[in-house]
Specification:
about 35% helix; Aspartate Aminotransferase, domain 1; alpha/beta; globular; 7-stranded mixed β-sheet; about 375 residues; Aspartate Aminotransferase, domain 2; binds pyridoxal-5'-phosphate; 2 domains; 5-stranded mixed β-sheet
Length: about 375
């Protein structure tokens, strides 16, 4: 049933080669940035270039989209000014419907969904790792969308994409997968039956912590997709040419970054799991992690660069550990080349389901030995 993309090239080849075909007029090796927001109309009153006005899209956005579509095995992609702009464009393009979403997911999107009744939607939050609970939550003929996130923030729980897609499709619902933490290097959700993929491209796709961007990719464009495209244009939420160019540039090293970050995260997870001050390491790559079996079947070549640790000493020791690191940077967000540490429940604030003794770790490209030693020293100082 799994229909993996039949693209002849591997992701590393795609990312390195797709945007270096040479620009047609100058023969520049790397893509140009066209900043024009308006384009010349032909004398016969047409627009033979296809370019009209920059609120619809721009050449840099289209370049990033074509590469992302190839990586996801998608028919089309749409790049937005942020991950939340992309996701909410999808939610707002649905006719009022019932949405099933995870109890634990990226908190800013969850807060948006909580107020989605204002936009006509009904919403049910479930434990997405519990297939029976998911089936019970889906209302045949009524549920329009099942939203999943795997691995999901900030506990890195795993959702079985193929199983959820099957249950959703039987009931007539679409499945959209927030695959921000997995990236198309490790998982291509469309191949497992998801209809739409979301990425906060602010994270790994750009990878350098210097662009806000988001993307939706679709397996088979439909009427909903046309509405999403229209909404991007009408709401003015497309990414600008400079940022789109930076995103495309970041994408070109995605494969090697994600693989290196996954390797380091796995090394750290194993070593941290043995640490006497740590009560739990949340990482789907650990064989005793609850989602490991499913993760191993749908994540290829690694389990991602994100993990969380829980400190036996509780919230005080967690916050103090974050205060005592010197290589890890205390900051929110993830997926950049620099390693970040975050006391997540402080960030999520009131109503957060994130345990207060938890630190979220985004593993960058530093040497894993240095990262481990830095964290170990910080924990020792915080005891
Ligand atoms: C950051 C993030 C988002 C939102 O993306 P922005 O680019 O910050 O708007 C959505 N989903 C996940 C999993 C994220 O980590």
């Amino acid at each position: 049933m799994i229909d993996l993309p039949t693209t002849a090239m591997k992701p590393g080849t795609l990312t390195a080669s797709v945007l270096s075909e040479g620009e047609p007029i100058t023969r520049a090796l790397t893509p140009a940035i066209h900043v024009a927001m308006t384009y010349i109309r032909d004398a016969d009153n047409g627009y033979s270039s296809g370019n009209v006005y920059g609120r619809a899209d721009n050449t840099s956005v289209r370049q990033a989209e074509s590469l992302i579509s190839e990586l996801e095995g998608a028919a089309e992609s749409l790049v937005f000014g942020s991950g939340t702009a992309a996701a909410t464009a999808l939610f707002l393009s649905l006719e009022p419907t019932h949405i099933v979403a995870p109890q634990l997911m990226y908190w800013a999107l969850q807060s948006w969904l909580r107020q989605s009744p204002r936009f006509g939607h009904q919403i049910t939050f479930v434990d997405m790792s519990d297939l029976e609970a998911v089936k019970a939550a889906i209302r045949p003929g009524k549920t329009g969308l099942v939203w999943i996130e795997t691995p999901s923030n900030p506990l890195w729980t795993i959702t079985d994409i193929a199983a959820v897609a099957q249950s959703a499709h039987v009931a007539g619902a679409l499945v959209a997968a927030d695959s921000t933490a997995a990236t198309p290097i490790l998982t291509q959700p469309l191949a497992y039956g998801a209809d739409i993929v979301l990425h906060s491209a602010t994270k790994y796709l750009n990878g350098h912590s210097d662009v806000s961007a988001g993307v939706l990719a679709i397996a088979k464009p439909n009427e909903l997709w046309s509405r999403v495209r229209k909404m991007r244009e009408q709401n003015g939420s497309v990414l600008g040419p400079f940022e789109a160019w930076l995103l495309a540039r970041g994408l070109r090293t995605l494969d090697i970054r994600v693989k290196a970050q996954s390797r380091s995260a796995e090394v750290l997870a194993r070593r941290l799991a043995k640490h006497s001050a740590i009560s739990g390491v949340l990482y789907p790559g650990l064989v005793d992690s609850p989602g490991h079996r499913v993760a191993a079947s749908q994540m290829m070549g690694g389990f991602g660069g994100m993990l969380s640790i829980r400190l036996k000493g509780g919230p005080r020791v967690a916050i103090s550990t974050a205060a005592n690191v010197s290589i890890w940077r205390r900051a929110t967000s993830f997926g950049g080349i620099e390693s970040l540490i975050e006391h997540r429940s402080s960030m999520e604030g009131e109503g957060s389901l994130c345990p207060a003794d938890l630190l979220r770790l985004s593993v960058g490209l530093e040497d894993p030995d240095d990262l481990f030693n830095d964290l170990e020293r910080a924990i020792a100082r915080s005891a």
